[in-house]
Records
---
Amino acid sequence: MNNLIKIKLSEKITRTSSVCSFRFIADKKVEFLPGQFARIIFDEEAINNSSLNKYLSISCSPERGYLEFTKRITASDFSKHLMALAVGDVIHMARPSGHCVFDESLDGMVFLVGGIGITPVISMLEYIADKKFKNKIDIFYSNETDKDVPFKNILDSWTRDNEALRVHYNFTGCVENDEGCFRGRINSDYILNKVPDIKERTAFIFGPPAMVEAMKDICESMGDCPVKMKYESFVGY
């Protein structure tokens, strides 16, 4: 309990019909690296209660004066507790952790992301925008349809402001025609077509476990010199 941090809800933001962001103000300064996550605590008496105390990636830059967490809302008890929060309500969180984070020294990066796995990427990209870094970045972002894309407007605005950043959307379900998007699942040919120098970069993989494993297999299959990878699976989110 002594290591927990009090956070007060300041705003809820609807990202899609099923995704919502929650912004909190902490009662003390919280330091974290872009890409880290923290455990949100609803059951303080039973910290190991995995139904009510879950890990969520931070979906904002450390440069902001708040902490933002974004989740796809389901029928789970954890989602119900989040949605029941009103502005001004206070809950607790554990200190941020995680090693799959932004590294300024990496000139070239590729993000292979599925669904709500975009949240740590948003933290990194917002930090990059805040600092006006020009790291060469390609994002392959997979969703079921074009209606399921959290943060799309923000991602598109960052690509307009930073020519070193490109976002490649792909959809596994039926969508309206859009010349800027790829239909189907991400594969090695598609990646190499867009990023022929991928072996000179570091690939970050975030998303559901099955998607993470599939992307790891693709990266490991690219010739005699596998792609450098960092990855985290979103288990039970």
---
Amino acid sequence: MRKRRSMMMAVAVASALLLAGCTSGNDDLADQFAEGSGKNYIAGDGTITVYDASDRGEPIEFAGETVEGESFDSADAAGKVQVVNFWYAGCAPCRVEAPILQEVYDGIDADDVSFTGVNVRDQAANAASFEKDYGISFPSVLDVASGEAQLAFAGRVPPAAVPTTIVLDQDGKVAARVLGQLKDASILETIIDDLLAERA
């Protein structure tokens, strides 16, 4: 009980740091980021880490309520490659990578691959506005209140680095991580294809 309480406290502190690291803004944020100004966000550097099957740790499961108010449980995607993207609306690199994520999502076979966002800051209205503006059609879990999804990934996702994209293998284990903005659709497509090939 004490260990779980300590972990929850760590997530709360990390979330507070994350919230302090970026302010919400207007659509100029994406332009500022693309220009390299680096204003008002904490993000990773785009480092890609791929884990060998023997180094993927334990399966990860998480649940929550989506932006649309529906229940989500990652267990429903058991047996699929799962792409999980951590984001929030005022994060400039999140805005830049959103069309790239949607491009990859449009090309997947839903029988084999699932996509889920984890929104770490926004209330439903702000997150829904982002999804509409950027044409995002895959679901996102609202995690600002509970932090449960962030806690589930705490061993592999530095809480202060947003965006981060995690890819789980068909056993629900962390197989790859993009720490920071996804630069190109082909990067994520290759990771997905490699994981699908493991079970071909």
---
Amino acid sequence: MNWRETVAARGWKVPFVNKSLFMIGKDLRPKIDAIIMRDSKIPDSAIQDKGFFAWVPKLEARWQEIRDEAIALQPKEIPSLGDLSFDHGRIAADRRWRSFFLKGYGYRMAGNASRAPVTAALIEQVPGLVTANFSVLEAGGHIPRHTGMTKGMLTYHLALKVPQERDKCRMNVEGADQLHVLTWQEGESFIFDDMFNHEVWNETDEDRYILLIQIKRPCRFLGNLIQNTFLAAVRHSRFVQDIKKNIDRGGMAKA
């Protein structure tokens, strides 16, 4: 009997186990976010200053090698996020949004990493990494307006392959006092707080490839402790376990 079966048999209640992303957020997110933001080492801004993150130039310097590994994958080889994760249902209804995961919540996707060894090695040098994937938004794709899971994570985009009509491939991020309209430029990157509403369009006939990384927000002691505890619990939630199982079924097992 594994630990999940033991918990169920004895009627124990373990935080987040068998819970969806929505249930996790509804239960604890506001309290957790309040502590995290009190201890945050960086401002509460929709778009973050890359200068806070010493690892960013190292990735930008290797962007062409990362790009070559990403575009060697045909879009149809990369699963749609909606097929990997039930919890992303509404925002991933457009199956033209595809995700090739290399690492997530401590799980390394060995099969995928073997197909992108340079990228897999580089992401291991990113402090506080939570997830990393090649994110492809195919021609005509749309990701509806939404927010992320917690203020404890920030999202990084490194542009790898971008449609020529850049203004038609964009992301709107609703900051506290202004709307940020972001476009991607190959070899360049930005970091944003996905707890601000954001929406993405690719209104071109070309696919957009980026390296998408989620990292922990830099925090002082208590905020960092809360982040680690929350993320450790999410690792065992249905949200993460469903994605891992679906990737494993595709022959891309964890290390």
